[in-house]
Structure to design on (956 residues):
RNA sequence: GGGCUCGUAGCUCAGUUGGUUAGAGCGCGUCCCUGAUAAGGACGAGGUCGGACGUUCGAAUCGUCUCGGGCCCA
């Protein structure tokens, strides 16, 4: 059914309507894998490295994710940011090698494996468990690698770094050797969670907390010199003085070394009666009532109150051990329960341990691996288990008349997840790296400084993005204890220490390097299969004769904290691969890594080389739910990364990553990502529109001068500004700014303003008309610049668009992929203030015109702007002369059919605009639909304007 | 509890050294176009800038407190 006249159809055929094969619908999910295959086939990464072979390096060093599970949205953000920056820097002319890595050792994997094995694990050797862990890690490296590549992350995927590879393990040991030589490695007791049933140390993840009933005791610790105490605090009562402590684990009392008080809490000296005797003891004021309620007829009377720090330094006599302890201060002391005076056994508690270290108190642990007391305790305890010890100790306290009260208490207590038995805190020998011992790094000279000092100085010289990262890591460095690098696990890198028959450790740079060499050749499993003789066979002098016979050496059982391994990547990767460089230009991870990888890479690098491993450290935040709270997998709104990729494609996810300010929390939901498709489509359609209007444009033949005083000039300048702004946003790592600039440029400058206005001349002018070619000249610049600027973000779409750009300039034409190209450059044209004002005026007049058009639409039913004429009312001759050049531009900006200038005197603005309904005045051109007075002036085409008539003739 | 940090329209973001009626894009609503068409355009409604109190002639911007998040510790 054709209601159109045949003539009309003819005219449509005479137009230069946009045409392109670049599809409107992206079909990212189907097309991205094809493009990936194409890149792989074409060796895009290798090509890029070759293309920039002589360029200066810009190295981003990848922090290794844990090889466990599918990637999640946090990985997507992290890897996308890295990829975008790398690609941008590459387009900026740098050589940007990217070696992805994985953290392979560690408890989560070992935990998973042993859990899956169940009871079978008892029959398996460490080596068997390690083999299973290795397979597991390898499997997930493969899975995650695929998933990262699917995201469009470009890198050396065929040669990533894995912390479990023999070369890597070996280089980690070499870093350790440097530490040993610097004299920073030492062994010391430290309490760990201990399973008596399995006689093994446990990690936090291996604990299950259960509610249990225990007998807690309140104990009077007699002041060593009551007279002195009474004198100091002016207590004129003839009674013994004690400090009242409370504990739920009486068996730890033999190891009591101190009493901790909070320096700012108020304590009371209380006079009370018990067992027919008047006594004085100290309790936190807030707890006096609660505590003395436990003893009937105690008649407590507060004699005096003092602040905790006044008590510090006072001494007491241990009730049943020949030992004097003293009162120390600790910030963690609370007055929620107990007495406010905390029984401190540095060998049996985390807090107690820190208090012990701070106050130089011995880390004393009289409990053996089997949970029985050793011979250093009173002989009525020796040989008993700690559980047998509990009632014994309580009885003894009763006997000594220092048991103030007993109380059944229900509390949550850690249990071994495997044997389901209660665990204890027990001090064991651990390896440490000293943070405060001054040293001079290998090959270095100058002043000996501690690791802590060096780290602080290095951080001062590092750029942090955002800047507060510096304060954060400095705070952590200030307060962190020495680094405990040993773990009692199977799945990890063995600490290469040997012991002779006197239990003296063999640990020298030389011995470590000898083992490193062996590991490099055969992997770290040899630690479990080979004899010390074999392990040290690479260096016959590694074990000095006076130390003992090599064959009789015993191997250390502990492995390294996995952080020491990933924290050595600056060496194992950056220094060991010749095409990388040390230090790296950028480390980029989540802000949790201030404590993690950043700090624990900084320390090894400084210990071994004296140089920090990075110049810049960039951090991003974490995804949260739309309401700002943390996400968990059970949430309905949980965003599954792989699922989102399959649903919307990688480019959409990438673009979304680029649109948010990653410095803070990142609200995320499947809904938000889905809705973000609108932004992607706007950009894609804009690219498509530009491409479609360039189908017949060849810059070699059709390029036109673009005068500044024209809409084309404006558009060209806007593009220049865009290039400058986007570039500086990228340089500042402000992706959301770059994204916004690009998106808004597409939505506003191109779609709403320029592209919309230029339709008439693009479609209706004769193909070779200079004004048409001029607009194409600008659009051609636009499509190239936009595609390039978008390329780091939407890697697939940009590369696709790149293929559709015809007649690229020589340098670009040589780039099969946009990712090989260099960034666009601004035209270099300077713009005068007067020119800017003219453009501003032009846009103001557009606003005026559109507003009036809206009124005409509502009041007169004028729906098509082409039915209106825009009249510019100008008084000033000079201004009119300047504006006349913009005549057609002004007309097209409001979409009018015609424009004219009138000298109607207006008294306020120098120029104003008036829209006039011309439906009754002029005939509409059948081709351009413009209503103009010249329609019908060409006798051959009575239904066309002169311009259109000429265009039709030229087309024939 | 501590260190660091975030809180501007439904969403994502701008808001320079404190200064006229707090901006943009998207979304939404209404309308138009049908020669970018599973596109495009116009107009419009949305915010007392987490809250309170201060400093100031004047604060989203400075200070104190407070509420609610986040990361890391304890």
């Amino acid at each position: 059914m054709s209601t159109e006249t045949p003539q009309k159809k003819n005219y449509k055929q005479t137009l230069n309507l946009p045409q392109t094969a670049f599809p409107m619908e992206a079909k990212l999910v189907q097309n991205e894998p094809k493009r990936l295959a194409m890149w792989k086939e074409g060796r895009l990464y290798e090509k890029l490295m070759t293309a920039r072979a002589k360029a200066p390096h810009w190295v981003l060093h990848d922090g290794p994710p844990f090889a466990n599970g599918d990637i999640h949205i946090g990985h997507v953000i992290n890897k996308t940011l890295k990829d975008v920056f790398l690609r941008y820097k590459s387009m900026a002319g740098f050589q940007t090698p990217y070696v992805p890595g994985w953290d392979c050792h560690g408890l989560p994997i070992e935990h998973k494996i042993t859990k899956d094995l169940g009871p079978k694990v008892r029959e398996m050797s460490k080596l068997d468990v390690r083999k299973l862990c290795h397979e597991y890690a390898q499997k997930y490296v493969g899975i995650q690698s695929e998933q990262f590549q699917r995201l469009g992350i470009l890198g050396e995927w065929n040669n990533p770094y894995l912390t479990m590879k023999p070369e890597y393990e070996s280089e980690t040991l070499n870093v350790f050797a440097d530490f040993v030589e610097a004299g920073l490695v030492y062994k010391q007791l430290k309490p760990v969670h201990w399973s008596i049933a399995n006689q093994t140390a446990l990690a936090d993840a291996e604990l299950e907390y259960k509610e249990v009933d225990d007998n807690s005791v309140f104990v009077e610790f007699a002041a060593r010199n009551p007279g002195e105490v009474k004198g100091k605090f002016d207590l004129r009562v003839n009674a013994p003085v004690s400090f009242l402590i409370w504990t739920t684990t009486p068996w730890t009392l033999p190891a009591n070394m101190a009493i901790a008080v909070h320096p700012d809490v108020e304590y009371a000296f209380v006079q009370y009666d018990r067992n027919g005797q008047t006594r004085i003891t100290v309790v936190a004021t807030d707890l006096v009532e609660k505590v003395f309620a436990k003893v009937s007829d105690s008649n407590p009377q507060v004699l005096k109150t003092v602040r905790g720090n006044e008590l510090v330094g006072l001494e007491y006599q241990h009730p049943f051990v020949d030992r004097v302890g003293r009162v120390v201060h600790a910030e963690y002391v609370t007055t929620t329960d107990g007495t406010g005076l905390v029984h401190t056994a540095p060998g049996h508690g985390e807090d107690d341990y820190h208090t012990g270290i701070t106050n130089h108190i011995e880390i004393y642990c009289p409990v053996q691996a089997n949970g029985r007391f050793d011979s250093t305790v009173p002989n009525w305890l020796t040989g008993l288990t700690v559980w047998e010890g509990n009632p014994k100790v309580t009885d003894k306290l009763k006997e000594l008349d220092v048991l103030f009260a007993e109380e059944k208490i229900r509390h949550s207590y850690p249990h071994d997840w495997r044997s389901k038995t209660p665990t204890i805190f027990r001090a064991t020998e651990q390896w440490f790296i000293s943070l405060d011992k001054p040293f001079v790094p290998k090959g270095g000279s100058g002043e000996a400084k501690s690791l802590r000092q060096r780290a602080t100085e290095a951080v001062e010289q590092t750029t942090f993005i955002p800047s507060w990262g510096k304060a954060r890591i400095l705070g952590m460095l200030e307060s962190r204890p020495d680094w405990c690098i040993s773990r009692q696990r199977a799945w990890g890198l063995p600490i290469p220490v040997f012991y002779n028959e006197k239990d003296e450790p063999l640990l020298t740079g030389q011995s470590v390097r000898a083992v490193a060499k062996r590991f490099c050749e055969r992997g770290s499993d040899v630690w479990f299969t080979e004899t010390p003789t074999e392990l040290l066979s690479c260096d016959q002098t590694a074990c000095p004769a006076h130390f003992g016979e090599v064959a009789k050496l015993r191997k250390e059982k502990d492995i390294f904290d996995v952080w020491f391994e990933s924290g050595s990547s600056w060496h194992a990767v950056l220094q060991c691969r010749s095409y990388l460089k040390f230090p790296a230009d950028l480390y980029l991870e989540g802000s949790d890594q201030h404590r993690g990888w950043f700090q624990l890479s900084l320390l090894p690098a400084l210990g071994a080389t004296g140089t920090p491993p990075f110049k810049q450290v960039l951090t991003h935040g974490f995804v949260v739910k739309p309401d700002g709270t943390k996400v968990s997998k059970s949430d309905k709104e949980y965003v599954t990364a792989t699922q989102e990729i399959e649903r919307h494609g990688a480019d959409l996810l990438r673009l979304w990553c680029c649109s948010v300010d990653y410095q803070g929390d990142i609200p995320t939901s499947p809904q938000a990502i889905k809705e973000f498709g609108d932004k992607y489509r706007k950009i894609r359609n804009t690219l498509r529109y530009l491409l479609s209007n360039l189908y017949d444009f060849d810059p070699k033949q059709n390029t036109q001068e673009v005068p500044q005083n024209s809409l084309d000039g404006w558009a060209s300048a806007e593009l220049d500004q865009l290039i400058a702004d986007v570039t500086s946003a990228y340089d500042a790592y402000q992706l959301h700014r770059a994204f916004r600039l690009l998106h808004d440029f597409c939505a506003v400058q191109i779609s709403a303003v320029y592209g919309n206005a230029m339709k008439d001349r693009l479609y209706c002018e004769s193909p070779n008309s200079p004004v048409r070619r001029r607009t194409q000249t600008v659009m051609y610049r636009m499509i190239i610049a936009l595609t390039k600027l978008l390329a780091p973000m939407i890697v697939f779409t940009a590369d696709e668009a790149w293929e559709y750009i015809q007649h690229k300039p020589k340098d670009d034409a040589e780039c099969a992929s946009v990712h090989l190209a260099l960034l666009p450059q601004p035209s270099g044209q300077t713009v005068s203030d007067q020119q800017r004002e003219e453009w501003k005026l032009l846009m103001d007049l557009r606003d005026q015109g559109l507003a009036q058009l809206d009124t005409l639409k509502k009041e007169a039913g004028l729906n098509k702007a082409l039915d209106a004429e825009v009249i510019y009312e100008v008084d000033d001759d000079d201004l009119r002369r300047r504006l006349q050049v913009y005549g057609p531009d002004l007309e097209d900006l409001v979409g009018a059919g015609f424009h004219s200038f009138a000298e109607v005197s207006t008294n306020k603005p120098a120029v104003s605009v008036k829209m006039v309904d011309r439906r009754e005045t002029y005939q509409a051109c059948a081709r351009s639909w413009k209503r103009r007075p010249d329609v019908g002036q060409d006798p051959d085409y009575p239904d066309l304007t002169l311009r259109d008539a000429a265009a039709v003739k030229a087309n024939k």
Q: What stands out?
A: Residues 1-7 of chain A have pLDDT under 50 and may be disordered. Residues 833-860 of chain A form the longest helix (28 residues). The first strand of chain A starts at residue 60 and ends at 61.
